[in-house]
Amino acid sequence: MSRRAAGLAWVVPALALVGVFVYFPLVENFGFSTLKWDIFSGSQEYVGLGNYAKLVDDPVFWTSLRNNVLFAVVSIVFQVFGSLVLAALIEGVRSERWQRALRAIYFIPCAISLTVAGLLFYFIYEPNLGLLNHLLEAVGLDGLRHAWLGEEGTAMPAVMAMSQWQGFGYSTLLFAVAIQRIPREIYQAAALDGTGPIRRFFHVTVPLVREMTGVLIMLTISGAFQVFNEVMVMTSGGPNNSTQVLGTWLYRSGFVRNDFGYAAAIATVIFVVTLAIAVAQLWVARRRRVEW
Amino acid sequence: MRPRALTTFAALAGTSVLALAGCTGGGQADKAPAADAAASPDYSGTLSILTKFAGEPLEPYFEDLAAEYEKLHPGVKVELIQETDQSIKDKTKTLTASNALPDVYFTWTGTWAENFVRGGRAADLTKVIGPGTEWGKTFSEGALSAFAYDGKYYGIPLYGNGKFMGYNKAAFAKAGVEVPKTFEELIDSCTALRKAGYEPISFGNKDGWPALHYMQQLFAYDVPTATFEADLKPATAKLDDPGYVKALTRFKTLVDTCTDTKTGTNGVLYSSAQEAFADGKSAMYYQEILEFDNETAEGKLPVGDFGIFQLPAPQGAAGDATIVEGSPEGYLINAASPRIPLAVDFMKFVTSTKNAQTLSAPPYGQPSTVIGAVTPETSSKAVYEGIELVNKAPKLAAWLDTVTVPEVADAWLSGGEALITGSKTPEQVLESVRQASAAAK
Where is the signal peptide (chain B) (predicted)? Predict the structure, then answer.
């Protein structure tokens, strides 16, 4: 067997598996999104782009999309820029032992499953027994008590806060690794030139971790459009659809409203958005390579 | 991805969409074979059953039955898929969409069961369970007819259910209030109960459907029955009766006056509200008969302190004050099952008098629909009293989320949540339901 044939023999099974389990369902989903599908009788009526037209007129779809965008913006602020600052602070700590301890403290929430974290925060936010309202009461801020997940004004921020808490440590750790890769000599030279820590952060750290920043921005946006677990566990999209995101509206359309064709159309929208982000990520990663 | 690769991918995806759309249009699920439900069973193979009995204390009921049946028929293996009230909806739909329904599966009444019948997924059991048949005679007629469509009988009713206000007799005595006879008296009693140190009514609407249960009973009181029944079907719905706004207003009054969580009630779990009542912190809790025995389980409310009454009707309401909210729940047999006679035999075993009595007694407390299974001797006092009230009611109002089409049920669900938070008025809620109903035509 030639080397080329041997190589193909190794690659083809993997390609077939990826094709069957990744690409075929994607394509199949596009097909489903053009159908009015009654799962009970199995009848499938071709409606072309009808489900996509329905999306345009669906106020809950727009609420969901808006919530995803909001999720992305908040996540970029906290999980990218916030964690960059935090990582720089941790790496500035002189004691190696403290550095390790701080990294572990921030990373631990990432090791908890989203479902468990969602449930945990559900009980923190619970209006009668929850820790948050008790804490507010204890410090004399009774007026700030809320049914955090039960009110339309507070439910989405409460879910997003939990999500930031959960994801913050992951990006902090990645930034910490990126900062460690920056040659110490650059910092030493900057220090000799008399630059303070803030200027060093903006003129050395930020430019030299831009590759990681770009990757994390893309991952964060992509993650924000795939949000599902935390919303499902904490609010199921309620109250009054105020916390619906595309993932939960997809689920509700299919499994509660029996409209599987429409759910497939929402899935297509999520796919297109995340695909666009993935393409942009590849493009950014290639153009913004940092070399020294 | 290079532009050329992206273009290739898009072309591939587009072509596949068209190809799939072409080949799937008009596709049908596997149609039911003409299996004879009355045939003698072949006692061999695996019988799969999807129940709504997951979790304590219900889980052992079907497990014990399966073990006993396997002992009686060594060639048969009973495979149980046990789900909770919340998870069974998704499970059933996933199995339906993938043509993988088990031999026997749980169902609610109303449009929920009708979907399976209409889709040819439920076996016609008229010959074995219809009125006048030996097996059929063991059930109350009302329970059997709840699963009848176009004169054919499809369902095996396992237990009856109804919704009542559970109350803490000691709390009522301490507050000096009597069991309210009208909705207005119920609201008035909340002030005295609060003064006595209780949350008058604990209520958790995190999942949305608990609000629908209040709303459904109030609609039955405030909207003329014929009008309401016509409004459940999008084809005949007008949803313009003034009773709807009255009922929604009353519901909002109850939430704001009688619960401690008020506009934040959507943030409370149904089970947390139930715990508050069972722990003696709240004086009332609106609940199903199926939950009665949980309230008086060990370490909870003393049996003597637990009482029930029907959610009282408002004075001068235009609907029917005798309607009780509730409906039986049961099982369908998969029309595509190759073991229909065996499935029938197993369900006959499940609904035998002995097993029906076990089901009706603590710790299960699921009042069987088998005649004579629920007696003061076999069931707890509250379960017996509840099922008697259900049996005496001239008409039942089934759960709003199973009796109308899903889009409309979903609009009621969101509307109930919005009403609680105060973001929508009763008129706005009704308008959103009207729009959903019009879109579902």
Answer: 1-21
A216: closest CA of chain B, how far (Å): 18
Phi-psi region of B130 (alpha: psi -120 to 50; beta: other; left: phi over 0): beta
Residues 6+ apart with CB under 8 A from B285: B165, B166, B201, B202, B203, B273, B274, B276, B277, B295
List CB contacts (< 8 A) between A147 and chain B: 261, 263-268
Does B257 reach chain A within 8 Å, measured CB to CB?
A: no
Q: What is the pLDDT of residue A103?
A: 83
Strand-pairing partners, residue B287, are B164
Taking CA–CA distances from B98, the nearest residue in chain A reads A39
Chain B hits for A30, Cβ within 8 Å: 13, 16-17, 20
What phi, psi does B316 have (nearest 5°)?
A: 65, 20
Q: Please list the residues that pair with B79 across neighbouring strands.
A: B48
**Number of C-beta neighbours around residue A159 at 10 A:** 26
Amino acid at A126: E
- Give the pair of three-digit tokens for residue B386: 């509840």
Chain B 90-129, residues with CB within 8 Å of chain A CB atoms? 90, 93-94, 96-97, 99, 115-116, 118-121
Cβ neighbours around B33 below 10 Å, total = 11
Instruction: Give the closest of A45, A127, A255 to B261, CB-based.
Output: A127
pLDDT along chain B (441 residues), means of 10: 41 38 39 72 96 93 97 97 91 92 96 93 96 93 90 95 97 98 98 97 95 98 96 96 98 97 93 94 96 88 95 96 95 96 97 96 92 91 93 89 92 97 97 95 86
Is there a contact between B217 and B163 (Cβ–Cβ < 8 Å)? Answer: yes
Number of other residues whose CB lies within 10 A of the CB of residue A242:
23
Identify the CA nearest to A276 among candidates A216, A212, A213, A225: A225
**Chain A: residue nearest B115 by CA?**
A40
Alpha-carbon gap, residue A259 to A255, rounded angstroms: 8
- End-to-end CA, chain B: 45
Q: CA torsion sign, A264 to A267 to A273 to A274?
A: negative
Instruction: Tell the residue number behind the tokens 């009921």, with chain if given.
Output: B61
The sign of the CA dihedral A214, A218, A221, A227 is negative
Of A34, A255, A256, the CB nearest to B17: A34
- Torsion, Cα B158 B159 B161 B166, to 10 degrees, reads -150
Vertex A102 angle, CA A96 and A106, to 5°: 150
Nearest chain A residue to B259 by CA distance is A128
Predicted interface score ipTM higher than 0.90:
no
The beta-carbon contacts of A201-208 under 8 Å, at least 24 apart in sequence, are: A201/A85, A201/A88, A205/A84, A205/A88, A205/A179, A206/A84, A207/A290, A208/A178, A208/A182, A208/A290, A208/A292
H, E, C per residue of A143-209: HHCCCCCCCHHHHHHHHHHHHHHHHHHHHHHHHHHHHHHCCHHHHHHHHHCCCCHHHHHHHHHHHHC
Name the stretches of chain A with pLDDT < 70: 1, 287-292
Q: In chain A, what residues touch B417 (CB-CB under 8 Å)?
A: 238-240
- Which pLDDT does position B97 carry in this prediction? 87
Min Cα separation B94/chain A (Å): 8
Phi, psi torsion values for B205, nearest 5 degrees: -125, 35
Cβ-proximal residues to B38 (8 Å cutoff; 6+ apart), any chain:
B127, B128, B341, B344
DSSP state at residue B122: B
pLDDT in the model for residue B46: 97
Q: Give the per-residue pLDDT at A215.
A: 87
Helix/strand/coil percent split, chain A, to 5: 75, 0, 20
